[in-house]
Amino acid sequence: MRRGLLRRPLAALVAAAAVLGLSVVPAAAAGPAGPAGPAEPHLRSRYVTMPDGVRLAVDVYLPEGTRAGAGLPTVLVTQRYWRARVRLGEPGGASGEAEQWTARGYAYVVADLRGTGASFGTLGSELGADAIADSGPLSDWIAAQPWSNGRVGTTGISYGGDTAMLATALRNHHITAAAPISYDFDPYEDLVRPGGVLIEPRVAPYALLLRILDQAGGTTCETDEQARQLCAHVGLTGLQPRPVDGPDGQALLAAARAEHANNANLVEMANAGAYRDYRDGPKSWTVGSVGEKTDAVEAGRVPVLTRAGWLDAGTANGALSQFTGLSNTQDAWIGPWNHGAGWLADPFRPARPLTAQEHDENDRRVLDFFDRYVRGDARPDGRRQVHYYTFNEGVWRTTSRWPVPGTRTQRFHLGEGGTLDSRPDDRRTGSDPLRLDPTAGTGPLDRWNTNLSGDEVSYPDRAAVDAKLLSYTTAPLTADTRVTGNGKVTLDVTGLAGSARGALHVYLEDVAPDGRVTYLTEGQLALADRAVADREDNPDWRRLRTPRSYAAEDAEDFPQGRAQRVTIDLQPVSVLFRSGERIRLTVAAANPDSFQLLPADGQASYRIGWGGDRGSALELPVVR
After folding, report:
1. CA distance 323 to 548
2. Burial bucket for residue 257 (CB in 10 Å: 0-12, 13-18, 19+)
């Protein structure tokens, strides 16, 4: 099992740590004074029944001394990884995150999704329609409580962020703001199958964790050694979901968990769902995609605050797709963070936990946003901003437009001898051999690992790895060059043996004067998915991405012996290449640390052409 895999107790996957951690300040007023009456419990754990009869386990935290008429704003989190975990026979304590919200005068409501934790029901699909829809009745129930002001803000990290954002498509008038953190705008493209290539080494242990949480197929922490090790890594050994209050709580928990045994299996879906249009009953990639719900999200007009990391899987790509594809009031932050924003993730700096001040800054933005739209009744004003951090410069900037003003596309042409030049050489043509190397990956702590583990992101010097691959490098730059946005690579590719169902991976890198190679971003593509669609068929949320369907009917084996044009999108980035540094593009046929091998036997080779009218090129968004 890889170092760092889900190792920290409650980190990003298992507990209520998947909601915002706000620093404690003196308690805020609980709202306008109401009629005299007994105070509500500070914490109550109970069932709330959905319209179809499924009962959801819900923890309700209220500020101390709350009475009817308090007029509290409410934070709602819908949790996949148990809303709270306790030891058998012990009641369990209050959530630290809840205490921090209630100290500010908010009600904090966290629910186990149907089919998970102590809730009843069966999860027919991860991010399935039924589970997403439950946020509507939950919000109605909250608004009907005597302590509520009728306004709900949805939030959460990772899976909880996914459900928080998807709830905005329900057009429930009680949901007045959303703050999805480190969320997956489109689970197919931004996490599980970027470029159509499965993140197979990362999915398998995560799927095992889900089976343990759900006891699916009878799987528990004691099923086998792998399960025991995983439970030990995540601090799950000996724990269970919190039962609801009352003498029947434990029996109800057992009855609810018995219904989870047939929950959908993520590995089965990930393998069967090779194409974006996959559907098997309630299971599909599109049902959990915000991109597929843009009309409904816009109609709801819910203001959204988003936080994503440049090196957190495809969450930055999703945040920019949200910004360019939705007209809602938006405040998007894209920074140097791992998944959940617990660690600094800047490839030019050592990974480290965020400081208390950095956490406070992130938390304050969410608090101010909810104070405006959930505690207060401000109307969305249509203001849309992206705040973004630039690597190798350490500077934050704000823009109301994307691509940012002053952006121009600069082409760098691949050439003879591994050169990369802004001036094409039409006089010389040729090609370079590329063989799949099953040892040349991105390491155990890359961007795809953090999304499923919450671990730090750390890329070592890539010079040794690049020596195994095919690299093209510019001469030292004569001026600082700032790149911000979505780049792309167009390659002239001739498939050789084993290439029919192959894949290509590309890396954008910085080469320092001392030879150190720093990873910046990447792209990948299953070559069967290379077909480019008409631009008018590309939905608005994909306007920054090459028009491509990833549909089964458009897939086609890669021909051998005949050159093909292949376009690969890079994950977005903002980086300053300093004068004297060099820009490098590296091409690979595999990334064994995070992706399935295509083909499975690891035997494939290609030729990458350069020069002439069809020469290969790197396109970067350069900002003046």
Report:
1. 20
2. buried
Of 4-13, 264-273, 426-435, 567-576, the range with the lowest mean pLDDT is: 4-13
Q: How far apart are CA 21 and CA 362, in angstroms?
A: 10
Buried b (16+ CB within 10 A) or exposed e, 481-519: bbbbbbbbbbbbbbbbebbbebbbbbbbbbbbeeeebbb
What would the pLDDT profile of 563-582 be if each residue is shown by its tens digit?
999 999 999 999 999 999 99
DSSP 391: B
Cα–Cα distance, 11 to 254 (Å, whole number): 25
Q: Say if residues 369 and 176 touch (Cβ distance below 8 Å).
A: no
Using DSSP, state whether 107 is helix, strand or coil. Answer: strand
Domains annotated on the chain, with CATH = 16-399 (3.40.50.1820), 407-623 (2.60.120.260)
How many angstroms separate the CA atoms of 211 and 264, rounded? 9
Beta strands 107-112 and 55-61, pairing class: antiparallel
SS3 category, 612: coil
- Helix (H) and strand (E) counts for the chain? 14, 29
Check: CB of residue 590 under 8 Å from CB of residue 584: no
End-to-end, the C-alpha distance of the chain in Å comes to: 45
Element (H, E) at 567: strand 564-569
pLDDT one-digit tens code per residue, 112-163: 999 999 999 999 999 999 999 999 999 999 999 999 999 999 999 999 999 9
Q: Which one, of 559, 594, 592, lies nearest residue 468 by Cα?
A: 592
Given a cut of 60, is residue 619 above it in pLDDT? yes
423 within 8 A of 414, measured Cβ to Cβ: no
C-alpha to C-alpha distance for 275 and 285, rounded to whole angstroms: 9
pLDDT tens, 473-526? 999 999 999 999 999 999 999 999 999 999 999 999 999 999 999 999 999 999
Alpha-carbon span 367 to 375, nearest angstrom: 10
C-alpha–C-alpha distance, residues 174 and 170, integer Å = 10
Distance CA 339, CA 117 (A): 23
b/e burial code for range 46-56 (CB count within 10 A of at least 16 → b) = ebbebeeebbb
DSSP 149-214: EEEEEEEEETHHHHHHHHGGGG--TTEEEEEEES--SSHIIIIISGGG---HHHHHHHHHHHHHHH
CA distance 379 to 365: 18
Cβ-based neighbours of 42, under 8 Å, separated by 6 or more: 61, 62, 63, 64, 94, 102
Q: Residue 32 CB: number of other CB atoms within 10 A?
A: 10
Report the half-sphere exposure of 407 (CA within 13 A, side-chain side).
Answer: 16
φ and ψ at 532, to 5 degrees?
-105, 130
